[in-house]
Structures are given as structure tokens and as C-alpha cells.
Write a structure and sequence with these properties.
alpha/beta, Rossmann fold, 5-stranded mixed β-sheet, 9 strands, globular, disordered N terminus
């Protein structure tokens, strides 16, 4: 799949996992097919960063470490206004610093979250948080991102994550890593509906975890966060 032209993967109808009760990695597709960065055309649109290796590596780890039945050979690429999104309770978005939405996508994400969906925002740094906050205000104006600490249940849903090192993120040179969440009704006593890894890139660490390109300790920690996010979302 890695060798296929990016244009083939932009069809929102593929790839798509069959809805059969197993957990399937669901990646959000947004924006234009071709993006500019630094005056140059990117090899891939931002939402596709680390696809498909990150998705499939994570699914293998989730299936091996937990009792969550997982689809390990097929994932989803869905837009926020795709009605099939409601069949998959957890969505993942890469590089939300470049994220834009149509009115239909705004409504789609809002309905998804109100019905119990959970979204993970990953792979962004520096001032990209400003765009993420702006976009989410359009979707869920009654809530805002709040900084999470180790007391939150999401860090204890499977692995016991006892420290959140602000200098441990993939983009630590861009600033301290923060784990940010939006609560249902903006009430800290209720469930998280979104989590954002500011100045971090779990997907990059998943993608290269079998290559020696990134430190093993960092990859292991990245998988712990991902597994915890899934277990939390599946139980809340």
C-alpha cells in the first residue's frame, strides 16, 4: 500500500474496514489533496502523515497487549461528514495545524462527539495549537481544551502512566509537550471527548518503531499513550 500513488488513497471510499464489532483504526481525511508547505508541494497531504505504517503498527500492538479485538490488516480513511464515521467510536487526526472544515464536516464532527465519539489530535507543534483551538470552537463552542495531568483516568486505563514529562515529546525543541483535553459539557467530572498531544507526534514514533530510527523507549511510551486512549474511549 505504501507504494500506491497518493491520489488513489484520497477516495473517501477506500480504504475502509468492515464494521464487524472489531476495533479499526479510523483516520480523518480533511482539506485539499495537495498541500503547500514552505513554498513546495508536499509528498502527501497533512492528514496522511505516517500512513499506513503507524496505523497498522499500532493495531498490532493493541491486539497483542489487550483483549480488544482489532482489525490488523485494514484501516479506515473517513471524512468528518461521512455517516459511516458513527460506526467507529475513535477517530485519529494527524497535523491539525492544517485542518479546515466545510459546514457539513463541522456538523458531522459535532454529532459524532455528542453521540459518544472520541477524537485524538496528534502530530502538531508550535503555533499549530491555535488553529486546532479555532476549529474546535466552531465544532464545540461550549468546551475548550484544558491541560491534563497524571491524575486523569485516561493515563491509568491500561498502562499506569505516572509522569508526563514536558520535554519528552517528539517536538520538544518547539516547546513543552502538553496533553490537552476537551470534556463533555466542559465539565471535568464528565468524559473526555477529545485529546490533543501538543508538541508531540505519536504517529511518527509508531511508524518507525521497527526500524531503529527512533529510540525504543520513546516508541514504547508512544504505544502506551495510544493504548490508554483507546481503552479509555471504549469504556467511557
Amino acid at each position: 500500500m505504501e507504494g500506491r500513488a497518493a491520489a488513489e488513497l484520497l477516495d473517501p471510499g477506500e480504504p475502509r474496514a468492515e464494521h464487524d464489532g472489531r476495533f479499526a483504526f479510523t483516520r480523518v481525511r480533511y482539506g485539499a489533496a495537495v498541500e503547500m508547505r514552505g513554498g513546495r508541494f508536499r509528498r502527501e497531504p497533512p492528514w496522511m502523515h505516517d500512513f499506513p505504517r503507524a496505523d497498522f503498527h499500532f493495531l498490532k500492538i493493541l491486539g497483542e497487549l489487550t483483549f480488544v479485538p482489532s482489525v490488523v490488516d485494514q484501516g479506515n480513511i473517513l471524512t468528518l461528514d461521512d455517516p459511516d464515521l458513527a460506526m467507529f467510536p475513535i477517530a485519529y487526526m494527524s497535523e491539525p495545524g492544517f485542518w479546515t472544515m466545510s459546514e457539513a464536516e463541522k456538523a458531522g464532527l459535532r454529532n459524532y462527539l455528542l453521540k459518544g465519539g472520541f477524537i485524538i489530535f496528534d502530530d502538531f507543534r508550535g503555533n499549530h495549537i491555535q488553529n486546532l483551538e479555532f476549529q474546535m470552537r466552531q465544532v464545540y463552542p461550549e468546551g475548550s481544551f484544558q491541560k491534563l495531568d497524571t491524575t486523569h483516568p485516561i493515563f491509568h486505563s491500561f498502562f499506569e502512566i505516572k509522569t508526563l514529562d514536558p520535554r519528552s515529546g517528539y517536538y520538544a525543541d518547539m516547546g513543552d509537550t502538553e496533553w490537552l483535553g476537551i470534556y463533555e459539557d466542559n465539565d471535568t467530572r464528565k468524559r473526555l471527548i477529545a485529546i490533543a498531544n501538543n508538541n508531540h507526534d505519536l504517529g511518527e514514533l509508531w511508524e518507525f518503531s521497527d526500524t531503529g530510527y527512533v529510540p525504543v523507549d520513546l516508541s514504547n511510551e508512544a504505544y502506551k499513550f495510544g493504548v490508554n486512549y483507546v481503552l479509555y474511549a471504549m469504556t467511557h
